[in-house]
Sequence to fold (1062 residues):
Amino acid sequence: MYRENQRRFQFDWIIILLYVLLVAFGYLNILSASHVGEITNYFDTSQLYGKQLIFMGLSLILIILILSLEAKFYERFASIIYLIAILALLGLFIFGKEINGARSWYGIGSMTIQPSEFAKFATALAVAKYISDIQTNMKTLKDQLRVAAIIVIPALLILLQNDAGSTIVYLAFFFVFYREGLQQVYLVVALSLIFLAVLSLKLGVTITVLIAAAVLLSRYLLRRKKRSSVLQYILVLLLAIGFSFGVKLFYQHVLKPHQQNRISLWLRLEKDPIKLEKMKKAEAYNLIQSEQAISSGGITGKGFLQGTRTTGKFVPEQETDYIFSTVGEEWGFLGSSFVVILFVALIIRILYLAEAQKSQFSRVYGYGVASIFFLHFTINIGMVMGLIPTVGIPLPFFSYGGSGLWGFTILLFIFVKLDSNKINEW
Amino acid sequence: MRKLLLLSTTILVGLVFLARLFYLQVYHGASYSILEDTAIRKEYNYPKRGYVYDRNGKLLVANQPSYDVMVIPREIEPLDSLEIREFCDLLGIDVDTYEEKLQKAINYSPRLPSPFVPQLSKEDYAVLQEVMWKYEGFYIQKRSMRAYQTNIGANVLGDLGEVGQRDINRDSYYKMGDLIGKQGIEKSYEKTLRGTKGINFIQKDRFNKNIGPYKNGLYDTLPKPGKDITITIDSELQAYGELLMKHKRGGIVALEPSSGEILAMVTGPSYNPNLLVGRERNKNFSRLFRDTINMPTYDRGLQAQYPPGSPFKVINALIALQEGVVDTNDRFSCRMGYYYGSRKLTGCHHHKSPVNMNQGISQSCNAYFVNVYRRIIEKYDDAGDGVNVWANHAKSFGLGDFLNNDLPVGRPGRIPDGDYYDRAYGDDRWASTYIVSNAIGQGEVEATPIQLANMAAAIGNRGYYYTPHIIKDIEGDTIPSKFKLPKYTSIDKEHFEPVIQGMFDVYNEGTASTLRIPGIDICGKTGTAENFIKIDGVKTQLTDHSIFVAFAPKDNPTIAIAVFVENGYWGSRFAGKMASLMIEKYIKGETTRKDLEKWIFTHSLENEYAKPYSGEPFKINGETQLQVIENYATID
Fold:
């Protein structure tokens, strides 16, 4: 009996330790980025750092709640949770509150709640539920379309609320689908399309098409034995040409000017120095400031609460999306590397545990969790360090915000609960 | 395979991030300095610049407050045209200038302060200060500028100007808009005079607003005031020298032989140092620096490098005695010149013949010195060795190289050595007869007035000199020790007496016999130097320069002087008179020979200087009637 009990509550302490480290370190940086003048009261709820402490306290309650529920609950109620999330997103169109041009919040008194943060774990549950169904076969087009619909619905709703950043997160599920049997050709096509898109913007349509033609021709010539018909090659080339033109047109006519500028700056498309200066002034202020803040940290950083750029609030949105620049400035290369390593360790640990799950539901969900963390981590830190174009999404556990912290906490701890239960399954 | 995609991508991304962090923080951001942190505003407190006193304790340079109208373009509240006109009237500028200056400030930076109208007068400031609140974005900044207590010594005192980009690159102490010494002692004693700026570090936010002192002023420093200095110049003597130099071009350098202190350093034409202070500075600065005909900013006492002429004969006499090639009683005949075979190598004027050393010096006999010089060179088998020995002796008098003093400008002069002639004529393809011009201070030998004055001091001291310098005392500090060490010439002490006697007889019976000062024993030597310029590419000879070198009294001299007057005909015509007056003024404190003084005040060489620019043919050296100034003033 005693042994039974012990097994039932075998939580993965490594994940919990990583979580505690990330949240605690995140809090210290929010404190740095948000304090003005002397800190007199750490629980001052009129200050962001005070609020964050409350959010952390509530997270603890959420964790206890999640861990005390039956593991089977999540699988059983996945569809309902997903449905509630979709309804919450839909409700925004009627009751939503607009902040910074995005209609993504419910206002309750002075508090705001962002349902898109909760839609992530709901979608992950729904995807896990659908894929783990005994009748689902990810190799069939029918199931591929259905599971795609599960992620496209919330993604589309979020996009319509003008929150393009959060929409991109749903691309994370590609990793899940691939792991669960999506054909290799999707990966090849996806990578080719990304490659084509970047080439079309950087080198122009003509050169891109020539490169595509050259690649196809060499493939045709090298594959003498299993050669498919010339017609297929021509069809692929035509599609590539169409796509290349499409990307160019999309970039020029569909994207908003600020989005164009971000991409242009990233790919260094603008050659005219005067226009480039203007563009930098308009779009790259955040980026330049955050890169400078990170650089100025040096190896050991300026010390906790000692960052001059952080204190001077030089980096806009520093306590939210640009929180990593505070890490860079105050904790230096050592502290920043530590954060990067923590995230990589967390993702790898989740992946390792996901592969060890006996139930497919747990495994798929775990994969979803890892993928979502991966995308947030990659896009956010990549953006703050100037490696990828500006996309506004938070760094899990670091960026200020209750909805974000709770959303990621729930996302992670449902998996911790599922994992703790694997010993009881067979 | 499928299991590894996300895992490997995660690790890859992690590594890329670590590499990027390394690039940003370790490779790029290795050295953090609070001084370079753009999030910290550095506010500088300027220290008082040190005062300058003359050797008698007279204050020459002090400071005065100055008021600059500054502008921060982004903070300007738009003004209507009437308000702009009103504001312009107060500032004393027109509306076009207003727009122009504003545009310039915007181009520099919309967020940072730029000087708008610099250096208001006190009166303008008083009026403007009352209404300044009306013009948002403009404010008045108090600075300090120099206040000259004198109208003389522009070349000595120098001036302050804004630092250029090169100064900033050379020394990070300087920031845009700081002042730095540009000429004279302001330049050479810049670090002593300027003191050290104090810095307040202030945390600012991204709107450039001050938040508060950075770390409660932990790193802030107080300004350290500049040190006062006393210079060796006797301002009365300097003023007198400048007065004598009026309407002439040239330089006077007077030294105290027992210390190397520079008593006076006159250049003509000069200018009033007050011209380079205040609102008119830029205008006056370009006017002075672009005057390529009069060159008022060219210090002729330090930079005019010419053949020294006859005063150099004294050096040859000393070298000959040291080398033992002549005796003071050896006589050489002079047939109105020196003949090599039947070829006349150099001419001479009319005097008795033959002459011994004393008469050779006092009569300035060219033939005597060519003989002596050839003996020096020919003592050695190889003419190159001979010239090298001779050159080393001459160089021991501070000739032929920079004196290494504390003045920002100077010229090395030239004492040719054997290599010089090997390059000019080819190895062993020349002999002493090729270079006899050096015997009489012409030819390749060149020196500046300060070198000649120093040479006179070394002779007066009987064999040593102190490096001429301008610093006498630094508040709370000592002057560089190199100025306290005597430098010995390579001539033994006993050889000086006969030569000095010859220089004394220059006044008694020689070329300067009309310039004796009652009661003072002077030793001197006249000099007349031929000179040439190029007019439209044609080498043209101009009237000879007038040169005079002297020290007095004969024993334990208190002053050594060199006077150089461009195109002053001959040594005693201008330079000799001026040297004589300067010596009397310094030793007696006044001048007794008013007629001599008046002659100098009233005679101008300006007509002479206009000749090469007249475009017409002109005569040189022959003029007996000089230009006379009728209404001369002894003060400005």
Q: What stands out?
A: The beta strands of chain A are 97-99, 102-108, 111-113. The CA atoms of residues 291 and 385 of chain A lie 6 Å apart. Chain A touches chain B through 48 residues (CB under 8 Å).
